[in-house]
Amino acid sequence: MAPQNAPAGRREALIQLLRLGGLSAAAAAAGFWYNRRSQRPEEPLVAGLQRNFTVPRDPNLPELAIIQGEDPRQLVRRAIQELGGIQRFISRGDVVVIKPNVAWDRTPQQAANTNPEVVAEMVRLCRQAGAKNVIVTDVTINEPRRSFARSGIAQAAQAEGAQIILPEDRRFREVDLRGDVLTTWPVLEPFLTADKIINLPVAKHHSLTGASLGMKNWYGILGGQRHRLHQRIYESLADLANFMRPTLTLIDAYRVLLRNGPSGGNLEDVALKKTLIAGTDPVALDAYAAKAYWDLDPQTLPYLKLASDRGLGTVNFESLRVAQSSL
């Protein structure tokens, strides 16, 4: 494992890149490498599943990619290229589930949901790699059809050949999550049957946790009365991250909702950062974005420390191998 205490200059350089956004900071850093229950459905209980979709580590590849540029689709392509190419993650015949944030009946400009172009390009790459089926799904907070339509995600993903699955009651299964807080809970079925899962959150403010990033995005696999989880939200997030270990995480920071999240609505709360953060260490990705955009760290985001203690990744993002580029 990389050293826990990397030079302070490296950490500040990475954070400064994200805070500035745009191309000037990215250009300065380009090419450098640095040492991650609604109504309870009546379905049979699925006991003790644990969904580990991770790929093996490769010491020759970066664990984190930070890409900046004008075109969201190009950001996705470059990030995947830097991390080893789509064939590292997707095999011919795979059933792939892509999990964007589609929680809210908002437009792309309001940055409460994942950018539809980021979702569409990820679908295209998976299809190009030979995936048998690419499913895009989320358990929304607002009405599902309206959220998928107004976000632009349904149209963009379907245009690239994705199957959109809405969170209907019949599609949930009871699962023992075996968490400290989360025990038996309804989980949307595609997340239980996929071969690969790609987490595609948007970077945004959250009124309870300070930031909503990759680990918070897993709330969207659950049905039921999710607001109950807010009573012990940090433990719940760590439980979900332990249960759902993705093949790949890409944090959409093209537009960042800096305030009044998670639903947003006011365009004045949105900053155009034109950035994509991708990698194989979900804890590091969350730690990175939280520190850069909201100056949050494990002391103010205890779920990061809990996840790190469970061996799910590192909060010391500066200790990872990082590829940075601008387009």
Give the key terms.
eleven-stranded mixed sheet, three-stranded mixed sheet, disordered N terminus, 10 helices, alpha/beta
Quick summary of this structure?
By secondary structure, this protein is an alpha/beta fold.
Task: Tell me about this structure.
The structure is a single chain. The protein is of the alpha/beta class and 327 residues long. The chain has a single domain, classed as 3-Layer(aba) Sandwich (Rossmann fold). Helix content is 29%, strand content 23%. The protein is built from 10 helices and 16 strands. Strands 1, 4, 5, 6, 7, 10, 11, 12, 14, 15 and 16 form an 11-stranded mixed beta sheet that branches. Helix 1 (8-20) packs antiparallel against helix 2 (22-29), helix 1 (8-20) crosses helix 9 (282-294) and helix 3 (72-82) packs across helix 4 (116-128). It is globular and about 50 Å long.
Please give the CATH class: Alpha Beta
Question: Which bin fits the share of residues in helices?
Answer: 25-40%
CATH architecture: 3-Layer(aba) Sandwich
Total of helices: 10
SSE topology:
Blueprint: H1 8-20, H2 22-29, E1 33-34, E2 45-46, E3 51-52, E4 64-68, H3 72-82, E5 95-100, H4 116-128, E6 133-137, H5 144-150, H6 153-159, E7 163-165, E8 172-176, E9 184-188, H7 190-193, E10 196-200, E11 202-206, E12 210-212, H8 233-243, E13 244-245, E14 248-257, E15 270-279, H9 282-294, H10 302-309, E16 322-326
Parallel strand pairs: 2-8, 3-13, 4-16, 5-6, 5-10, 6-7, 10-14, 11-14
Antiparallel strand pairs: 1-16, 4-15, 8-9, 11-12, 14-15
Helix pairs in contact: 1-2, 1-9, 3-4, 4-6, 8-10
